[in-house]
Amino acid sequence: MSALAPSPQPPRAPRVDRHAHLEGSLDAGWIRAQAQEMGKPIPESLEALWRRDLVDFEAFIQAFFFACGFLRGRDVVRETVRACVSRLAPAGEGLRGLDLWLSPHFLVKESAFLSLDELWQGMEDGIRDAEAQGVKVAVIIDAVNHFGVQHGHEVLDLVLLDKPTWIVGFSTGGLERVPFREWAKVFDRARAAGLRIAAHAGENGPGSNVREAILEGGAERIVHGVRAANDPATLELLAERRIPLDICITSNRTLVPDLGDHPLPRLLRAGVRCALGTDDPGVIPCDIPSEWAQAQALGLSPSELASLRQHAVEDAWSLAV
């Protein structure tokens, strides 16, 4: 009798973080130590998130702003990029990449935490460190949807004046209050400058925002999009156009209170090109291996896990540069 063939092993965790915000990636222990040293009380919303309690999006924004208030100076920026890299799967087989979202207008203009030169230099240092570890980094500039379209133009005014080569994309985040059709001219301007277009949609706004971001805003990538999972027409659009979806399971479960069972299996089975990200891992603690463990716990088949891992590499902007 011939020996039975060994059972196929499920694929290892992806080697790409497809969605992390620099401002939300400061190490939680470091934030606590800095706050204690400076005599700043940590808001309950941030303590709740560190405990993995559910909070509403407004409370998350309060926690996020407090945490990124410590992002001051070139060296801290460099260390924050390092922290993002540390949350990837360990070095080994295959490429590693980090698609990193950054809000320079908020850091430099609105909050004046540091100068643009300090921010760019810290990013350069951190990206160089990452490359030395075999990690490619691409940066996507994030504007805040609820700050309005004029804010979007001001973000581009700041960034396009002397754009570093590692900036490859432009996105909107924040509260989905301004219709994406109104953002179309901002997206067109960013695209004309050579930037790829993404949008946070279908997270704190309705699933219809995903369709609008694609059809009227021209977005080629969607962040989250979980509220679109019950809309067959939107799923068909995502699959047909091969629009990548960045899925952040821990963040989604924390910030989308009516989510129910996470829709990742439904999205994958509808042919949507999903991949995993950490979102704001210093505020809502997680890393890529823990996100992968949660994906496995959703009952995905080995072939679905393989697709999740494959999409992470194939659609990562960091690995396309």
Structural write-up:
The protein is of the alpha/beta class. It has a single domain (16-314), classed as Alpha-Beta Barrel (TIM Barrel), CATH 3.20.20.140. It has 14 helices and 8 strands. It has helices at residues 28-38, 44-50, 57-68, 74-86, 104-110, 116-132, 149-160, 184-192, 208-215, 232-240, 249-255, 264-269, 288-297, 302-314, and strands spanning 16-21, 96-102, 135-144, 167-173, 196-201, 221-224, 244-247, 273-276. The chain has an 8-stranded parallel beta sheet. α8 links the parallel β4 (167-173) and β5 (196-201). α2 (44-50) crosses α3 and α4 runs parallel beside α6. The radius of gyration is 19 Å and the shape is globular. The protein starts with 15 loop residues before the first strand and ends in a 7-residue tail after the last helix.
